[in-house]
Amino acid sequence: MHVFVTGGSGRIGSAVVAELLSAGHTVVALARSDASALALESAGAEPFRGDLADLNAVRAGAARADGVIHLAFANDFSSPEALARAVAEETAALEVLGDELLGSDRPLVTVAGTPAVPGRASTEADPVSTDGPVGGRSRTIINLLDLASRGLRSVAVRLPRTVHSDGDGGFAGLLTQFARQTGVSGYPGDGSQRWPAVHALDAALLFRLALEQAPAGSSWHAVADEGDSVRDIATVIGRRLELPVESVPQETYGPLGPIFAADQPSSSARTREALGWEPTHPSLLEDLENIHPSGGR
Predict the structure, then answer these.
(1) How many angstroms separate the CA atoms of 120 and 25, rounded?
(2) Do 174 and 108 have their domain in common?
(3) Helix (H, G, I), strand (E, B) or coil at 107
(4) 198: closest CA among 277, 110, 117?
(5) pLDDT tens for residues 79-96?
(6) SS3 67
(7) Alpha carbons within 13 A on the beta-carbon side of 128
(8) CA 185 vs CA 172, 193, 240, 242: distances in Å
């Protein structure tokens, strides 16, 4: 299959590109910079210059593909306004991708987030939340999955908010950044809230399986660790950075504060059974042991 990938040079994207190539697919990937283009070319993919805001490039990449995996997102959490701009940019790009593939039965696999359900681990059958600072992303995904009835094999891979490798990535990586900046390995509240996680290489395998197998309109959970307490995560970070571990106000984390404070364990039982996905790479707490106190590797 000839696959168009957005966000192909990031932590998740580079793993997805490598997974696709190892399985015999060919890959053309959107590249917004010379450095990204070089990285993609070195990996064996064909770089396609443009970024997510370049809707003509997004459409052209999809037009020549047998399937699309969308991973790109600005990831600007510096302010509510910046986050809103990132969501709007992604929404416009997904609308173009859906329009280009509509009626062709070609797969469009996109990223969603695992939902939080009070009192239990969320499952693939639970709806994603359309509230909060990233609720717009969920509304876009819902609209995209609804296009399954019109000949689009739209599929959502729901990622936990920590996708990690080499001791970094996702919400746990942000906790590490805040710890380095503040001198305290902090957690909001009492730290009992649970975060699911997955290694980037395990997530990459699920994206490939979803591209190849998943039916139109379906959602899947890329969850390896159902839920580690944030206090346990902060404890490993504090030990690795040789910093005190303490509760801090959720406002410390800006617009992400309410999400950081939420209990959000998640299950992938249905995904494993239906698609034959089985994570094999280190858990989050194991991977955090790779954090280096100086910030190096």
Answers:
(1) 38
(2) no
(3) strand
(4) 277
(5) 878 888 888 999 999 999
(6) strand
(7) 26
(8) 11, 16, 10, 9
Domain, as residue range, for 158: 2-162+198-225
- For the chain, which ranges sit under pLDDT 50? none
Same domain, 96 and 218: yes
Provide the residue count of the chain. 297
- Same-domain check for residues 212 and 76: yes
Side chain identity, residue 269:
A
Helices (H), the chain: 11-22, 34-43, 55-63, 80-101, 135-146, 170-182, 200-213, 230-241, 257-260, 269-275, 284-287
With respect to residue 182, please indicate whether it lies within any of the assigned structural domains.
yes
Tokens for 4, please give them: 């168009």
pLDDT confidence of residue 56: 96
Pairwise CA distance, residues 170 & 151, whole Å = 33
- Cut 0.85: pTM above it: yes
How far is the C-alpha of 205 from the C-alpha of 209, rounded, in Å?
6
Same-domain pairing of 82 and 210: yes
149-206 confidence digits (pLDDT tens):
999 999 999 999 999 999 999 999 999 999 999 999 999 999 999 999 999 999 999 9
Q: In degrees, to the nearest 5, what angle opens at C-alpha 263 toward C-alphas 172 and 180?
A: 25
Going from the C-alpha of 273 to that of each of 159, 207, 278, the distances in angstroms are: 17, 15, 9
- Quick one: 176 and 32 in the same domain? no
